[in-house]
Amino acid sequence: MSDVILYDYWRSSASYRVRIALSLMDMAYQSVAVDLLAGAHKAPDFRKRNPQGLVPALEIDGLVLTQSLAIIEYLDETRSHAGFLPKDAVGRQRVRALSHAIAMDIHPICNLGVVGNVMKQAEAHGEDPAKVRLAWMGKYIGEGLEAFERLLDHPGTGSFCHGDRPSMADICLIPQIYNARRWEVDLSHLPMVNRIAERCLAMDAFARAHPDLAKPRD
């Protein structure tokens, strides 16, 4: 059994990012499910690993790491073959900017806690929470990915978001594409986003990290 342990929720975008990174590195790990819907992330035992009560948490190298992008950067800095960030400073800045556009601008507005509160407020005002949630996701994921498409209109974009190998930006993009499709967001007008997503999803490493494979079996 691997001594690398990922505390994971199958539909969590942040967890999905780390699964992709580990898969791209062919790094064996043990997955421990943390059921967000059941509130397992709020349990005292889990908060000892991550006081924020968020997934993922990664046990590796005798450490407990949190925050998906920080985990990915740690892997890049400690495993020379990872290659999630370019070697040059300008390239690293661009990959970080692309990654943050998703992980810091789209994801927080659409996460479980925020959307749950939006639905409660909708219900309190006599609105259909499910319809309000769908409209919320459509607006913020849609607008965010439209901005991401504009960021891709750049000489640094290659077969992937930056250059010709998957980077941290692609690792962030694919879970957001999963969420967009889940919430019926129209992406048909985003050719570069779609092209890169198709190329990533055709790779075995991305396929192995997919939520359908991470979902706990009854």
From TrEMBL:
Keywords: Isomerase. The keyword Isomerase applies. Residues 88-218 form the GST C-terminal domain. The keyword Isomerase applies. SUPFAM superfamilies: GST C-terminal domain-like, Thioredoxin-like. GO terms for cellular component: cytoplasm. One of its GO terms (molecular function) is glutathione transferase activity. Residues 2-83 form the GST N-terminal domain. GO terms for biological process: glutathione metabolic process; L-phenylalanine catabolic process. Belongs to the GST superfamily. Zeta family. This is Maleylacetoacetate isomerase. It comes from Thalassospira xianhensis MCCC 1A02616. The lineage of its organism: Bacteria, Pseudomonadati, Pseudomonadota, Alphaproteobacteria, Rhodospirillales.
